[in-house]
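Extended Data, record Acetylornithine aminotransferase
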Amino acid sequence: MADQMKVTRATFNDVMVPNYNPAKMIPVKGEGSRVWDQDGTEYVDFAGGIAVNCLGHCHPAMVNALTEQGNKLWHLSNVFTNEPAIRLAKKLTDATFADRVYFANSGAEANEAALKLARRWAMDKHGAHKDQIVAFNKGFHGRTFFTVTVGGQPAYSDGFGPKPGGVEHVDYNDLAALEAQMSDKTCAVMMEPLQGEGGVISPDLEFIKGVRALCDKYNALLIFDEVQTGFGRTGSLYAYQQLGVTPDILASAKSLGGGFPIGAMLTTAAIAEHLKPGTHGSTYGGNPLACAVAEAVFDVVNTDEVLTGVKAREELFKSKLEELNQRYGIFKDIRGKGLLIGAELSDDYAGKARDFLNAGAEEGVMVLVAGPSVVRFTPSLIIPEADVLEGLARFEKAIAKIVG
């Protein structure tokens, strides 16, 4: 085996494109909801790889699935199918509204497939005039040029030249604005059933039911981006299952692979027919390694024990954050669903979410932000209560430092 070179955070600056600015420390090992860096310093992980590590780090079911499949078959291409992909697709369709699954490598790719399918469906069924896609301000759907254009955050999409056309945005939870924008030209409405990157914003029930009704009225498809909300994150396999609203197309990723890159687009048989052979594809999509791991994750997550446990952990997290707020008065709002939790900072600390992230890391706890004024928590769905309490004790030390 080749000697491993010694790398430091400074090496990153010498060899990597500077579109990221990662933390000073470099994690080297994880187990459950704890992570250790090069110096052996321990951290409690409330970030979960941005809502990805739904079973924590190195869960035995995942390690076993990866090891077993790694000794059998890694890659074939979609000239062939494979058993793990078919088994995973069957489990997903049995557990959801969907009849058909398309596998990709990421959430952006799953959303890209969803948008292309919607456009192709509209063209085949209604003609080229029906091409409008309506999405929501502060939404996030990925970083490909199509998905970043549909996402409602210009800071991510501006500066790369002409954008794909036929895309409009309205405010989330504003049904009147959506209705004013829609017409018979609308082919799809794309939305997160709980906005993640945009600040952890839940939908009003009347709003989300109204979106479904408007899609029906104008014969448009409803696309749910469940990349962050899906696969147990909100306490059901997918968030739509708690809302009483069923989409036509659903995108899944992040927790789907528990840390192994995989994405999936789910839809009905009638809509799926419009992606005929040759219309879309992915070299790695549906590869045996990713699907074997995701199947193992599914078997753990899609159980009453885990999904009920998410709701219990949500209550613990929120109650402890409320206690912190009573002591320090730093939060304006604590919100979210399941283990997708956002704590919006009070006016005195507005715009300083990253300061709390950095202070947390110094105290041995990893958290996220969702915009400049929201601290976000997306830990493992099975994080032990002791780790929740220890992580929040460390976060309190970070708060105390900032508050002074």
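Summary. The CA atoms of residues 33 and 383 lie 6 Å apart.
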